[in-house]
Specification:
With about 260 residues, this protein is of the alpha/beta class. It has 2 domains: about 35 residues; about 220 residues, Alpha-Beta Barrel (TIM Barrel). Helices cover about 45% and strands about 10% of the residues. Strands 1, 2, 3, 6 and 7 form a 5-stranded parallel beta sheet that branches. Bound molecules: zinc ion. The site of zinc ion has 6 residues, from loops.
Amino acid sequence: MGVHGEGRKRGLGAGVRRVGRALNALPNRDMMGLGRRLFADVRRIPGVNGVAVTFDDGPGEGLDAFLTTLDRAGVRATFFVVGEQVRAAPGRLTEIVAAGHEVGLHCDRHLHQLSLTPWAVLEDLRRAQATIEDTTGKPVRLYRPPYGCYSLASWFEAGRRGWTRVRWSRDPQDWAADATPDGIVAAVGRPEPGDIILLHDSDRYSVPGAWRRTLAALPRILDAIAAAGLTACPVGALLDQAGIGRGPWSARVGFTPERLYRLG
Ligand SMILES: [Zn+2]
């Protein structure tokens, strides 16, 4: 093949890769509302009187302090854990479960899925699931991808494995370098029924010490939930209350009927 043919081949290769990348990112695209319908996940839970408190990226070194604060307030939460963090200190995940909290799957190595091949994404999910289930002895039920960003592979694999995909309705960006406890509390604001609050109990993938600011903000966030007349609880408890994540949908089928969720 001549020089021009090679050029065309390269051009074609780049085009295919571009289309592949666009397809892979599809679950995150809004596409004038269509994406949210086709790739609906749980961001807010309708018809409940509680607020879900969720922690990503751990379990890390601050875990005991978070568990103590939650215990003092009589609150149970959901921890979306990272496989490599669990393997580094499996006892921490056992502590989370022993304290009555819920465990969800975040990832194995906290890599951005759009930078990985579909096979690498599937391997990451497989390892995380094995680590979590071996440690807790319970099947994974909830899934939240790193950065809240799905790839096509993780989207369908989560459905195939029967995991309910969960993002959030309130994100105070507690991981940021300029976050402060006051700022985090203010960004959460006055919680409403069905809200899902995103927090981080580990700084492993953000700014050193970030979890200390989250920890300092946590009692006031829990107070705000109580002051709104709402109960702070794990995501799974609200899903059960709303009847979401059971039955033929969400488990085997990739697409979920939009009316089930008030997308936030
Ligand atoms: Zn994360």
